[in-house]
Fold each of these.
Amino acid sequence: MFDSIAERLEGAWKKLRGQDEISPSNIRDALRDVRRALLEADVNLQVVKEFIAEVEPKAQGTKVISGISPDQQFIKIVYDELVAVMGETNVPLIEVDTAPTIILMAGLQGTGKTTATAKLALHLHKLNRSCLMVATDVYRPAAINQLTTLGNQIGVPVFDMGSDANPVDIARLGVEKAKVEGINTVIIDTAGRLQIDADMMGELSRIKETVKPHETLLVVDAMTGQEAASLTHVFNKQVGISGAILSKLDGDSRGGAALSVRRVSGTPIKFVGIGEKVEALQPFYPERMASRILG
Ligand code: GDP
């Protein structure tokens, strides 16, 4: 796992080799290369700066353990810190004792929100948790059809009221229906826009205030790179999120958005999307992501 980054950062490690302590002078180049690796992995610049500032004192003064090369030891420190920043372990979805658990999906248009709604429903369905998906994107009738088609495909019902109803009412009545029918989990798909705008945030906040979800999950496209941090910041500040789903990780992004999202919101990434199919969802594991980010 550490071989590839060791190769990538070959120049910097040479200075560490043969030393018996990782010191301020011999660590400078290594840290600069870690900084570059993180930026190449699309971790947000500010997040990179903070990360380096935290790793530096941890690495300095570390005695080199015999039998382990100092460069390997340094990479291990960086790796452990990445895992720590991303939360150490997988954080599962909340499940409340008194059903239904209510999950609100948020995100920009095209990030994979509707797909993630169906992926989550299928995931829960396989765990024998009954689900209802609620279609509140009244601005794009195609979005309602998309969710209905996905629902048919995975055998999970979809609640919709067409495109003339108010999204807040649809969400509220969807939750009511789930309560009446004793459904375990309601997943509310919401409208996205190409960019953040006040109307979208206002509507999302009103839905949230009305249905009081147990989870508000932001779907972030892993390919958006640097922008993931500002996007997460705005959604978290204006609506408040409890976690995120990182979509499109099957692309060639190194996944730096994971570090940015966690760092900026302080909330866990719960799942990753790894393809267009409804089955293409996996729990998020900080160790795997740390290895991927380090390349
Ligand atoms: P929404 O506008 O946020 O609801 O986005 P959609 O769910 O409609 O997804 C937008 C596009 O991204 C569609 O073509 C999806 O098939 C695709 N998509 C969603 N999730 C993933 C993923 O994890 N990997 C890949 N490769 N494509 C995805």
Amino acid sequence: FCPEAIPILDAGRLPTGVILILKDVTSRMQQDKLKRGVISTVSHQLKTPLTSLRLAIYLLLEEKAGPLTSKQVELLVAARDESDRLHSILSNLLDLSRIESGKVRMEFRPVAPHGMILEQVDSFRNTAKNRGITLKTELSDDLPEVLADQAQIGHVFANLLSNAIKYTSPGGEVTISAEADEDSVCFSVSDTGRGIPAQYLDRIFEQFFRIDAQEGETGEGLGLSIAKEIVEAHGGTIRVKSEEGRGSIFTFCLKRADRTLNSTLSH
Ligand code: ADP
């Protein structure tokens, strides 16, 4: 059941009661499970033939089967690019189904936010520079460690940063910030890009959901759903705030290592 609570307020806006709605989501969960099963099976089945196909294309391009005309190179390059794209979609789908089914073993360790963020900034510095985008950080000095699988959270940052850069025009800014509260540290990736229309905000983390892509923009609508699965596997939350034409802020929160370790010890 999925519970929802709506407060009842009197004329002075004081709460006088609450309406509780319980929605039976069994059939939706069954459909989701079926969908996940189909996606996972199809992805596995496609992986092996695609690997052979890519190998053949790469060997042909390296002229291992004889010299090529320029027209043949042109066609093979197009085939290579599309098969690379298909490979990336399949890898993302397989990652997603492995995380959803709990098959990815998360290695939770105390991780210092500064190092983790600076590593991301380093790996995106060139991409941002090539697109004419300023990449900044706003971090307080005394951020506590979070309990995280650093490699997996690296994927979350990479997906958010590559989107922020992709959907922001040259001259714009992308900022990574982090702040701590009592229980968690919240990380934000904000941009001054095109923003997300309000009517799409609650669908943005769905698998395959994309807003009309502009000329030359590639993507498959999986990056944000992968980010959400990873953050939720950490017991964390992810949310978005956005204004069309002004920019977006994606924020995810992870548990502080000091609080989590203390509460684990006291149980
Ligand atoms: P992809 O970028 O591969 O299409 P994602 O799941 O990462 O897939 O994102 C889904 C959609 O959300 C994108 O197609 C894009 O329309 C929108 N989106 C994501 N991040 C941003 C952003 N920072 N600014 C504007 N739109 C975004």
